[in-house]
Amino acid sequence: MTVVFRWIEASSVAAAIRQSTWLYPFIEIIHILGIVLVAGGAILFDIQLLSTTSKPVIDSRYLLKWSKRGLIMVIPSGLLLFSTNAMALSNDPVFGMKLLLLLLAAINAWIFHIRVYLPAKWTTARYHAIASIILWISIISCGRLLAY
User: Fold this and answer.
1) Nearest of 129, 52, 140 to residue 97 by alpha carbon
2) pLDDT of residue 67
3) Residue 116, pLDDT above cutoff 70
4) Widest distance between CA atoms in the chain
């Protein structure tokens, strides 16, 4: 894997991002806006699941639509940011933790949407909501820790 990470870091795209004054900050802004859409949508949805009111305040399809748009921003921008420092990040335990937490968040959402999102399983849905909120806060925290 070291060879792959070296190749990524030595790529012309990564070099251009590193050498540009404004490109890295611009990509970082796109990444942060995407995180707001993905995590914000997920957390708002989760809060609604935890609510004691029976009528949702926001249509879940609307939140999911914006979360998908956020993913379209987060994935490519995250890969571009990673490319600029692939060797160091691949050896950083915080980065590894962030990737693991992202995987767990994806698995949690997948299980929720294929098995739990049914009226008969409302208690289980709330456990998924709590896990989702904790995972997203942890993912964002890891992302911030990577900057230091």
Assistant:
1) 140
2) 92
3) no
4) 55
Q: How far apart are CA 45 and CA 51, in angstroms?
A: 10
Which parts of 11-121 fold into alpha helices (H)? 12-19, 23-50, 60-83, 86-90, 93-111
Query: Distance between CA atoms of 65 and 26, rounded to whole angstroms?
Result: 24
Q: Is it the case that residue 94 has pLDDT exceeding 70?
A: yes
Q: What is the token pair recorded at 111?
A: 């299980």
Q: Report which of residues 80 and 109 the model is more confident about.
A: 80
Angle at 68 between CA 63 and CA 69, to 5 degrees: 100
As a whole number of angstroms, the distance between CA 101 and CA 127 comes to 17
Band of pLDDT at residue 119, cut at 50, 70 and 90: low
**CA 119 to chain CA mean position, Å:** 27
Q: Are 66 and 41 in contact (CB under 8 A)?
A: yes
Provide the token pair at 32.
């942060």
Q: Token pair of 4, please?
A: 């792959």
Q: What average pLDDT score do residues 53-82 get?
A: 88
| Structural contact between residues 64 and 41, judged by C-beta atoms closer than 8 angstroms | yes
Of 75, 71, 1, give the one whose Cα is nearest residue 39. 71
pLDDT at 59 over 80: no
